[in-house]
Each structure stands twice: as structure tokens, then as C-alpha cells.
Amino acid sequence: MNPIAFFIGPLAVHWYGIILAFALLVGICVSLWQARLFGATRRTVLYLILCCIPTGFLTARLYFVLTHWTVYKNNPLEWFSIWHGGLAIHGAFLGVVAAILVYTYSKRLSFWRYADILTPGIAITQAIGQWGNFINQEAFGYPTNDVWGIYIDFASRPFGFQQYDFFQPTFLYESGLAFLIFLIAIIRNVFNNKQRNFAEGSTFLLYIFIYSAGRFFIEDLRIDSEIIYGMRLAQAICLFLIATVLIICLKRQWLSCKLRVRGR
User: Fold this and answer.
1) Would you tell me how many other CB atoms lie within 10 Å of the CB of residue 168?
2) How far is 116 from 246, CA to CA, in rounded Å?
3) What are the pLDDT digits (tens) for 12-25?
4) Residue 7: inside a domain, yes or no?
5) Residue 82 φ then ψ, to 5°
6) Whole-number Å distance between alpha carbons of 55 and 42
7) Model pTM?
8) Do residues 63 and 90 touch, judged by C-beta distance below 8 A?
9) Please, is 174 exposed, middle or buried when counting C-beta atoms within 10 Å of its C-beta (0-12, 13-18, 19+)?
10) Which of 117, 125, 157, 179 has its CA 20 to 30 A from that of 48?
11) Strand, helix or coil for residue 7
12) Has residue 6 been placed in a domain?
């Protein structure tokens, strides 16, 4: 498939950019709906989103360039060529969390509350945005004979795998995982808005846990993973995030028990 959708004069408009723009638009609409659900002002959530988007793009690209430094170190102009792909989810996550932290701290707002508000929008943006990998023929897995395998052009096949035609659509698995998280987050937030059964931040933490657990196994199928000290970098980050979520949950449980004991 031609990665260029159309031209505006000399400017090429890429399908990758169109998909990302559409994904962001859907994510923003979902987040503004969640703001209303939580009783937060739409202006505050919109300003927060406008902080998250550039920060997330910057850290997503920076992460990708640094983890593929041997490819980019001699070609600085390619550092900015995001229309060729190369936006790392873990890098984007780091930037978005940092933006939420800074914004909520500066405005004296609850980080966990606004993280919950943004979680469904983040998940659906991720689910749609992953399809940009299909257009650019990247982030796929090992060769496969499964009926759902995707055809990869010869020029996009990694060295040593040129003789294979069909590969695991790992980007599709990630997209499905993110969409599942989106549905869970929506249900939890709507239910919690009526019942108030979940602590602030629980939806956001669940998103991190489910995505990290799913990504850990999907990463085993990826053909382009970065290996550091004998381990796939993305899997190491997933384990770190899972451990972080468990520690936060255990600490919350401990504090809750402590408060109950004091209240007796």
C-alpha cells in the first residue's frame, strides 16, 4: 500500500499522519465525555490534553531514536521523520504521565482523578493509532502460516527473513488489547460514577497492568525487539510497570487497613 495518501502542492500527506490525527481526535472526544462524567471542567481536561499530546509525541520519538541509535546516529534528519513511523508506546506513556503529573501538581488537582479521566481516551487513541504500523509495514512479528498473517513487501522484510511473505500482525494484537482496555475503562468509569466503589487511579492502574501483561507476551512474537543484556527491552519495561502497579496497590491496601485499625 502506498504510504502517501495525497499531495497538497509539494507537501505529501501520509496515511500514518492521517491515522494518528484521527486517533487523537477520537481520544480527545472520549476524554471530554469522561470529563463531563467525572464532573470536571472540559476546559481543564482540554488544556491537560494539549500538554500531553506534544510531550507524548516528543518522548515517543526520542525513545524510539535512542533505542535504535545505530540506525539514527549518522542520519540526524531522520530523527524528525515521524511519517516513516517510529513512535514508541512506552516513550509516549512516559511523556503523558509526566505531563499529567506536572499539570495536576501546578494546578493543585488530583493526579489519579485526571489519570482516570484520560485513560479511556488514551486507550482508544492507542488502539486506532496502531493501524499506522500496518500502513508503514512495521512492528510486525515472525513469519507465520496462519490465515491472519499479513503480507509484507520485500523491501520491508528484515534481513534474514526475505524469503518469507507473511508475518504475525503483532500491531493488530496490540490494537485489540488497547481496545479491550478501552471498553473495560469505560465500563469501570461509568459504573464508578454511579456506585463510587473504586479508588481514584484504579482505572489508570488497571490499564497499565493489563497493557503491560499483554504486551509482555505479544513482544515474544515481535521480530524487531531491542535486546539489552539478553532480554527484550519492552518486556523489561513491562515487568517494571507491573511491579510498580502491584507496589502501589499493596501500599494503598496497607494504608487502608491502617486507617481501619485506627478507626476502631
Assistant:
1) 20
2) 17
3) 888 888 999 999 99
4) no
5) -70, -15
6) 20
7) 0.90
8) yes
9) buried
10) 179
11) strand
12) no
